[in-house]
User: Fold this.
Amino acid sequence: MSADNTAQVELIVGTIVRPWLWGSVEGLSISMFTLAVIGNATYMSSILARSTAWGRIQPNLPWLVDAGACLSMDAVILGQYARFMLRDRWGLMDSARHIIGYRFAQNTRV
Assistant:
């Protein structure tokens, strides 16, 4: 794994962990993640649209794995956004207040 890929994974994992610890997705640009999902899905489908024969997929496998991993991590971030927005905007999922990190996010002492 190159230094660029390592840095990218560290940034995305940090972006996934932070909302769970803080209990909020404030500050995330949801449009950026939506466009990243669209871009990665389009990139993967363009590789697979040429041919699904193993001989054509095998040389492109590193790019497919990279795009698939980014796609799955971005999907987790979009899921967190939906979950926290449902809770914050419409008061849904009030039982989610007891998730690990909620008290940390509210700065209360246990």
Residues 95-101 have pLDDT under 50 and may be disordered. The chain has one domain: 3-105. Helices lie at 3-22, 30-50, 54-57, 61-90, 102-105. The radius of gyration is 18 Å.
